[in-house]
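Retry 2 of 3 after timeout on previous attempt. Resubmitting structure tokens to design endpoint.
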């Protein structure tokens, strides 16, 4: 009897030690915090039950280890009512605690949620095999990497490329507590607020084909000032790339060119683009002066958009 009591006391002490010595992990986001708190609550409920069941098992093993004539257990209505009520209380606690977390908008976001002006909305488009991040309000698109501000609500509008006939993918960032399906032609919303700055690794959580192992992406969480600076740099880079170029003129490739010949306003080009005049005249008017005796002659070099008089000769 003393041994069984000592074993039970030892198990209880071990359980209390595990509760006290459990390391407190840093909460990277509000999603991670909600999920972590739910796991802790379920652990606190499950640990005493586990200790009690194991204690009864150890007690029965030691007490009846030399029993050569076991007898069936007698009916005990009080004991049956006790464990039925205890089980109902435990299940009620688990259900209420889980519902409070699962019904939270940061865990189960609705597609009709409208972000505020201060929030950040990013469209996440999965394709075979990679990720595009579209900042529609800022006019920015990145591939394989997204930058978000800390202490700000961020909405990820997740889908898959329907035009590419993309497979079903899964948007998953374990350290931020984010996970959502990416279905072609369907948008699913995920909302978060990151507390800690840093780089967070994400990947596709659904096996989607030969390139599945390459579907990694990175979420960079920075301060609000650094995020605004990043947005300005991306916008300036996009404007710089779109502003280059000009009108180049070359023979056979565009531009207005004039050639020697007779006549006017004839356009012909071999493999050219744009308005190009070939032999026979170019956007110009050539005037042949008439000579004495009614004979007109002369050759003129064609000019571009001008009037040129040719030399006449009389007989």
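Retry 2 succeeded. Sequence:
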């Amino acid at each position: 009897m003393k041994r069984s009591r000592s074993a039970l006391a030892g198990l209880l002490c071990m359980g209390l030690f595990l509760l006290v010595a459990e390391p407190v992990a840093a909460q990277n986001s509000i999603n991670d915090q909600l999920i972590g708190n739910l796991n802790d609550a379920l652990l606190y409920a499950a640990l005493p039950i586990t200790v009690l069941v194991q204690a009864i098992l150890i007690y029965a093993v030691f007490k009846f280890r030399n029993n050569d004539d076991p007898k069936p257990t007698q009916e005990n209505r009080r004991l049956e009512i006790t464990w039925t009520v205890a089980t109902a209380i435990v299940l009620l606690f688990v259900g209420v605690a889980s519902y409070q977390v699962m019904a939270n908008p940061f865990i189960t976001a609705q597609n009709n949620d409208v972000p505020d002006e201060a929030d950040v909305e990013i469209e996440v488009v999965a394709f075979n095999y990679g990720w595009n991040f579209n900042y529609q309000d800022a006019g920015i698109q990145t591939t394989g990497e997204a930058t978000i501000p800390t202490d700000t609500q961020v909405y990820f509008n997740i889908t898959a490329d329907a035009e590419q006939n993309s497979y079903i993918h899964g948007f998953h960032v374990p350290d931020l507590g984010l996970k959502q399906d990416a279905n072609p032609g369907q948008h699913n919303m995920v909302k978060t607020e990151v507390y800690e700055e840093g780089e967070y690794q994400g990947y596709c959580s659904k096996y989607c084909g030969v390139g599945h192992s390459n579907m990694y992406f990175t979420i960079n969480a920075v301060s609000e000032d650094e995020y605004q600076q990043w947005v300005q740099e991306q916008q300036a880079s996009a404007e710089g790339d779109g502003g280059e170029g000009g009108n180049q003129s070359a023979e056979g490739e565009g531009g207005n060119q004039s050639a020697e010949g007779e006549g006017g306003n004839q356009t012909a080009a071999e493999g050219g683009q744009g308005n190009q005049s070939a032999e026979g005249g170019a956007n110009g008017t050539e005037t042949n002066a008439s000579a004495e005796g009614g004979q007109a002659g002369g050759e003129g070099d064609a000019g571009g958009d001008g009037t040129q008089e040719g030399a006449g000769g009389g007989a």
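Attempt log closed. Residues 30-63 form the longest helix (34 residues).
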